[in-house]
Design a protein that fits this description.
Blueprint lengths: L4 H16 L2 H9 L2 H11 L6 H11 L14 H8 L2 H4 L4 H17 L3 H8 L5 H10 L8 H14 L3 H15 L10 H27 L3 H10 L2 H9 L5 H17 L3 H7 L2 H8 L6 H12 L22 H17 L1
Helix pairs in contact: 1-4, 3-5, 7-8, 7-10, 9-10, 9-11, 10-12, 11-12, 11-14, 12-15, 15-18, 17-19
Amino acid sequence: MSQNSHDLANSLAVLFDGLRTSWQNSEDMERIHGYEILSLALRSKISIIDIYTFNVVFDFLGVDLSRPENATITNPLAYSILALEFEVWAKGPKDVQKAHLEHFTALLETSKFRRFNLKQRMSKFNLVRKLLFVLQSDLYSNEMVPRLVQAIGVYLRHHFVPDVSIKPVVSYLAANLPDDVPGSATPKSIVSRTDTSRRRERAEQVYEVLVQTLANPSLLSKFTLALPLSRVLLLILGEHPSSIVASQTLILLGLVLHSSPSFDRKFELVSGWTALKYILPAAWDPSVHVAAFDLLLGRVFISGKAPMSSPTKVICPYILPTILSSLNYGLERVTAA
């Protein structure tokens, strides 16, 4: 019955030492659902959990953030129950929250055992769905959300497969990015406007991470094979996109066209270019302007590398009507003002 952080950390250390040194104790712990019981106990002790408690638990699980190069999941059952119990770690102090989210990077990128961690351990935990579910909850403050989104990005870069990663992320974006029609103010919409805005802002961060991930040609190829991309782009864009969604969609279009020049005709078949002409003007801002002209001139950042300098040449004329329509839209607004 630990009453302070010091006692809790010591109690956990004694328990874990007993489990490390005895296979019988470890088997008994699993048989009696001891890790589930421990998880519930930690929930009841959230108020006294500190970074030392975190270190004791994660050292037992195989993750020592002072030596991230050796991080490996030694007990997958305990890890799935304790490490992925976001109700515990997301409600701790900020240093605990940061350490918990950073441990995903240690396992998947920093560790010399990262391939083992992914293939033999983390690929079985349905991690993307868990992280997206947590992102939609109120567990993390806005200050911590970028770190959570970064954790999603880390997993996407290393396990980008259709059913586990690609489709869950696209479904999340399709559900959370589209905005309500401007000016539609029902009692329900007024009450939920703040929540809708929060969800959309978080989804925009995920979309930015996804587009950054797709700058890797091999991952972009997986993405285009997994989904009907023309329709997916229009679905994510919606009828009233924010400037962030508009610019990221144009960047993604540029990546796809660089990889597959014939995609412009596929996009035309679903009236994609016409849709952009009518949808984008209201979302136009400097970031959309840059993305549109990058698309027009074929300037694409592949794997984070800037495009090689070349003579100015129109590569994608299909976007020109959208640019002109946006110019006209802006002039009309100035005139009206």
